[in-house]
Specification:
By secondary structure, the protein is of the alpha+beta class. The chain is built from 17 helices and 23 strands. Strands 7-8-9-10-19-14-13-12 form an 8-stranded antiparallel beta sheet, with no helix packed on it. Strands 1-2-3-4-5 form a 5-stranded antiparallel beta sheet, with helices on one face.
């Protein structure tokens, strides 16, 4: 599908924006940005702010310029208004416009609009701030029309948010037009292709990608444009995004680990990501959003919302949602033709098992070379992504964490990249541009070739060979079957010029006995039985982040950082069949045996028989 490209629009449009910004007149009769009549009115928010738990949230508003403005709007706090004005006067438009990070200058429109009725905000001050907002918005437009970072990079939604907030605060029709057209012709098609998912680690995808997009949508909605309705009519990808966030959160509400996942507050739904859920849930009315919002609120109290808008708590927290018992389905595939991410869950309780698998294309330089990677979580990580994300150029990341050796896949040869091709680009301006460059520059990573869901089990298969150097790997097909008895079966068929090794990473030291290995935490155990190759060699490597005996230790650590310490390596053949049983730490062992059905191979485990057909068709499963 080819989509229009705003970057090809005439440069004269920028001049039009500048002239329109100077001529725009702010409408003092309409509600402040993000507010509306009724349940979303300023009066309703003020009433909430008088009661717990919302009143406990108020001191946190002093942490940002727009937070201080909101504190005045909700409580009449004059000192907060004065502090906000001081921040606004000190704000510089010459610091990169916040495009390299969510700089304060991008949030200036909210503070400007929320202080509009304060007597201490003079006409001269308003004019000065409006000038800064216009200059920043013009820079954002220039960025989005240029040839900078990819539409999937976090800088694109930040720039779009800058234009959208300016449109809302200044009542500027030109900014509003540009923001709407960018959303419909560029951003929405790109996100729909992913089923609302992310292309880099979840801490980037949610807090620095999904968050500014949510703010942009709400800013535009408060000025009459309903992007939520547009997304619903074009793939319903915002509702899918909420389901994606629900699946991407492990049962402890930390993110599934893949790509550059930042540790600390952005590594979970506990803090700033919560407001993204709430804003999308409120905007879409999707049952998945209501369910996820309530699930997070049941576990955590209100939070500071760093990197996100401070407002949603006063609208959303503690809200009675329609359809809030509608949990997402337990099995889900996102972005089959793009990111290729599959999720299997035993349930949605705290002690449920969550399995994640990825086999998709390359979009962003925060991605890893991890085709075929899977994780298993049950009361802690049993099979995990290895390594931490600290400094982008640290040896730990470049030589270990981003490479195949740090992931639960198959590597070929002894190099850290394991035969996977190293790609380095993120200049895809829109969906059509990515599709064109993908074909022209051989950016294919992997293809989901099978997906089947049935009562009590699910199946996914992928051709992973496109992500590998064809001079090294001729074929690599991975199949996964999840059984609700707590069993994950991994079947790999490979052909290569270098010896393959099957990898699985953990923090606890694995215990190995012949063809079996176990990984045990305080609450759970992963029992692995290697059925193929028949003359297998099962070994453990560690402790440390080791590549051919050399350790690349993490350069940084923080809360929720789980770099791993050990890995299981299986070698001795070109076809692998490994049965992984997830259970309580003290549960009795589950037997698993290999079976043959003609020229097909299979497993009997937990009272079920699973057979893999060589033509890659969905397996036949019999109790």
């Amino acid at each position: 599908m080819q989509v229009p490209r705003l970057i090809d629009a005439p440069r004269q449009f920028l001049l039009f924006l500048c002239l329109a910004a100077a001529a725009s007149a702010e409408d003092a009769s309409r509600p402040p940005a993000f507010f509306a009549d009724g349940d979303l009115s300023v009066a309703a928010a003020r009433e909430r702010a008088k009661e717990k738990p919302w009143s406990d949230r108020l001191p946190d508003l002093n942490e940002s310029t727009h937070g201080k403005a909101l504190l005045w709007l909700l409580t009449g706090d004059e000192e907060a208004a004065k502090a906000a004005l001081a921040d606004m006067k000190a704000a510089s438009v010459d610091d990169g416009y916040g495009l390299s990070e969510q700089g304060p200058i991008l949030w200036l429109p909210l503070a400007h609009d929320w202080l509009r009725d304060w007597s201490g905000y003079s006409a001269a001050d308003r004019k000065e701030t409006a000038g800064k907002i216009s200059k920043t918005a013009d820079a954002c437009v220039e960025f989005l029309k240029g040839t900078g970072d990819s539409v999937w990079h976090t800088s694109a939604p930040r720039a779009w948010m800058g234009v959208s907030l300016a449109a809302a605060a200044l009542d500027n029709p030109a900014y509003l037009k540009f923001a709407r057209e960018y959303f419909e012709s560029v951003y929405s098609p790109a996100m729909a292709a992913l089923d609302g998912g992310a292309v880099a680690g979840l801490s980037y995808g949610v807090c620095e990608g999904f968050a500014p997009a949510a703010h942009a949508l709400w800013a535009l909605k408060s000025r009459g444009y309903d992007g939520f309705a547009y997304a619903k009519a074009h793939g319903d990808w915002l509702a899918a995004r909420l389901a994606y966030m629900a699946h991407s959160a492990a049962p402890d509400l930390t993110w599934q680990r893949w790509g550059d996942c930042v540790a600390g507050s952005r590594a979970s739904l506990k803090e700033e990501a919560r407001n993204v859920v709430d804003m999308l849930a409120l905007g879409t009315g999707a049952p998945e959003g209501a369910w996820l919002s309530n699930r997070v609120a049941a576990r955590y109290t209100l939070n500071a919302g760093y990197h996100s808008c401070v407002l949603p708590d006063f609208f959303v927290f503690g809200r009675t949602w329609p359809g809030d018992d509608a949990a997402p389905g337990r099995f889900r595939l996102f972005g089959r033709e793009a990111i290729g991410q599959a999720f299997f869950r035993s349930g949605w309780d705290d002690d449920s098992t969550a399995v994640f698998f990825k086999a998709g294309d390359y979009f962003d330089n925060h991605g890893h070379f991890d085709q075929g990677h899977f994780t298993i979580f049950r009361s802690g990580w049993l099979a995990q992504d290895s390594g931490n994300y600290g400094d982008f150029n640290a040896a730990h990341r470049l030589e270990y964490a981003r490479k195949s050796i740090a992931h639960n896949t198959v590597v070929f040869g002894t190099d850290a990249d394991g035969g996977q091709r190293i790609v380095n680009r993120q200049d895809f301006q829109d969906l059509g541009d990515w599709q064109k460059k993908k074909r022209a520059h051989n950016l294919e990573g992997a293809d989901i070739t099978g997906w089947h869901v049935a009562e009590g089990w699910a199946y996914v298969s992928a051709n992973l060979a496109p992500g590998y150097d064809p001079k090294v790997v001729g074929a690599f097909v991975r199949e996964l079957v999840w059984l609700d008895e707590g069993v994950l079966i991994v079947h790999d068929r490979t052909s290569s010029k270098a010896a393959p090794r099957w990898l699985l990473h953990s923090t606890p030291e694995p215990a190995i006995e012949g063809s079996m290995f176990t990984i045990t935490t305080d609450a759970s155990r992963l029992s692995g039985r290697v059925l193929l190759p028949t003359k297998q060699r099962v070994a453990k490597v560690g402790p440390g982040c080791l590549v051919d005996g050399k350790d690349f230790p993490p350069d940084k650590t923080a809360d929720y950082a789980v770099p791993g310490a050990w890995r299981v390596e299986v070698s001795g053949g070109v076809e692998f069949l490994v049965v992984l049983v997830v259970s309580d730490a003290k549960a009795e062992a589950t037997e698993a045996t290999i079976v043959k059905d003609g020229d097909a191979v299979g497993v009997e485990v937990g009272g079920r028989r699973v057979v893999f057909r060589k033509d890659g068709a969905a397996p036949v499963t019999v109790r």
